[in-house]
Design a protein that fits this description.
The protein is mainly α and 176 residues long. The chain is built from 5 helices and no strands. Helix 1 packs across helix 5 and helix 4 packs across helix 5.
Length: 176
């Protein structure tokens, strides 16, 4: 599972009595359990595409829960995210494999070559999302007339937390 902001900044953005760490613990605990039991059941019932859609809705609930973080909202939405994570990753893998095999059959190419290429393209996009996300947030934050000054001793986690705070304030206030 990869939720870049969540993985790196949850404990910094939600330090209130360990809320960030607790929410991440719930996410990963539920993810482990859902990965063990849910994917075959859900994929068999609704198929890969709809499993991806339903699982992404779980991710959206976690994003919404972070708009006003508190113990109640984050722990519940963390559990929902974790439950949706296992089926999402399993259905993504199944979907890429089935699509690759179908394409290989249509084109006469080697199945494993096409499947590997599909996974390579997926992970190229997936892993580069951190770069694109940081680039976009940097461009958005640099448009503001008010400069953000970081303390000289600030580490990268504190800087990302300040950037996220400024981004959320600008987004929610509607300032440009």
């Amino acid at each position: 599972m990869h939720v870049s902001l969540t993985d790196h900044d949850a404990s910094s953005l939600n330090p209130e009595k360990g809320l960030g760490v607790a929410s991440l613990s719930v996410v990963y605990g539920c993810l482990i359990m859902s990965s063990l039991f849910l994917p075959p059941i859900i994929i068999k019932k609704i198929g890969c595409k709809w499993t991806i859609v339903a699982s992404m809705c779980c991710y959206v609930t976690y994003s919404i829960g972070n708009f006003k973080p508190n113990w109640y909202s984050l722990i519940i939405t963390s559990a929902i995210l974790g439950i949706g994570g296992g089926p999402l990753w399993a259905s993504k893998c199944t979907y890429l494999t089935i699509s690759g095999i179908k394409y290989a059959h249509q084109t006469g190419k080697e199945k494993m070559d096409v499947v590997n290429q599909y996974f390579g393209i997926f992970f190229l996009i997936y892993q580069s999302s951190g770069i694109w996300g940081n680039l976009i947030s940097s461009l958005v934050l640099n448009q503001n007339q008010n400069k953000v000054h970081y303390p000289k001793h600030a580490d990268h986690m504190e800087i990302r937390a300040v950037r996220m705070e400024v981004f959320l304030k600008l987004t929610l206030s509607g300032e440009r």
